[in-house]
Amino acid sequence: MNDILPPDSARWEWLESKVRSLMERYAYRNIRTPIVEPTSLFVRGLGEVTDIVEKEMYSFEDRLNGEQLTLRPEATAGVVRAVAEHSMLYDGGKRLYYMGPMFRHERPQRGRYRQFHQIGAEALGFPGGELDAELILLANALWKELGLHNVRLEINSLGQPDERKAHRAALIAYLERHVDALDDEARRRLHSNPLRILDTKNPAMQQIVEAAPRLIDFLGEASLQHFNVVKAILDANGVSWRVNPRLVRGMDYYNLTVFEFVTDQLGSQGTICGGGRYDYLIEQIGGKAAPAVGWALGVERVLELLKEQGSAIPPVTPDVYAVIPDAAALPVAIATLERLRAHGVSVQMHGAPASGEGMGSMKSQFKKADASGARHALVFGSDELARGMVLCKSLRDGSGAQTEHCLDSVSEWASTLQFSS
């Protein structure tokens, strides 16, 4: 787990701002669910034999009532619980998004910590492949907004339960014929969750996995049609994709479309966003049956990729730095700064140094003003104040131009100090 400090926290705020703006354009609304949920929610929702439930969850017993609780390892189960609990689908489907910390006890990797952060989007109550495509387009639009490149889309269809059942039987029979070549983890999962074996990263098993029966070959007409709708919409919008028959995702709740956005620039753990359809999860956790589809991205990984690609993230800087030569000017200066802030101007006020030697020299104050990134310095000098004025000096255009403004007419000149003006 790690702290996120300024100025790095500004990169997070920038990303979150981009996401909020984009979600609004796609008509997705924010939902916020608890960090702690009953352990049973994740066991039922994610699957008992998934890595997350078996190895990675931070679970504990409530000392007051003995209830088994878990720090959320992902957000979809909690969103689904909230939707079911509050009967949110009674008047039709909902488009939702969330941001927040998740917790998994796993080996820390580049861009992944045991407390990590996800941003996700969920469309609940919609059965059609057009919503699968909409969510993929939403993620793809975010990469464009952020200026990310070299991110590829991989898609697959897991079909419906009866189709997976037939494939499962064929897959188990195939793997049993090659059991001597399976590693211990694959043998353990052979009869409990064989589909996850296809996602193995063990180089020694790649040839066996490549030749395994493909789930897509067991899909019926309806499942194939659903998948074709998704692909046709992506094609119509110029989004490149590749079918990856080994793409199964890490949770048991998925059916039909699954997808991942992958990069080669973050090492072996290259997935920065993944999701799919989960039409049975709402009923599975006790709600009324309803279709749903969604995705989640790893914030740390996306920010790491932005850094890797050298993408420029605008710095957060004040419009104005207030230079105050004498502490006697503080009452008038601060009153002026408050009026500027009320007009939307971002202001950083100089603070007296810890040495206790007054407000510090003009030279040191201008040095701090320059380091702040502010475009202007407002100098509250005694001569200017005696005339009811404040001196404004340009810091960024190289001219060093100086003008005076009247303290009694802040509203008339405040907008000239803003970067956006």
From TrEMBL:
Family annotation (SUPFAM superfamilies): Class II aaRS ABD-related, Class II aaRS and biotin synthetases
Q: Name one GO molecular function term.
A: ATP binding
Family under the similarity heading: Belongs to the class-II aminoacyl-tRNA synthetase family.
InterPro entries from the UniProt entry: aa-tRNA-synth_II, aa-tRNA-synth_II/BPL/LPL, Anticodon-bd_dom_sf, His-tRNA-ligase, HisRS-like_core, HisRS/HisZ
Q: What's the Enzyme Commission number for this chain?
A: 6.1.1.21
Q: Name the source organism.
A: Acidovorax soli
**What catalytic activity is recorded?**
tRNA(His) + L-histidine + ATP = L-histidyl-tRNA(His) + AMP + diphosphate + H(+)
| Gene Ontology cellular-component annotations | cytoplasm
Domain of life, source organism: Bacteria
Main location as per UniProt: cytoplasm
Gene that this sequence comes from: hisS
What is the protein's name according to its record? Histidine--tRNA ligase
Query: Keyword annotations for this protein?
Result: Aminoacyl-tRNA synthetase, ATP-binding, Cytoplasm, Ligase, Nucleotide-binding, Protein biosynthesis
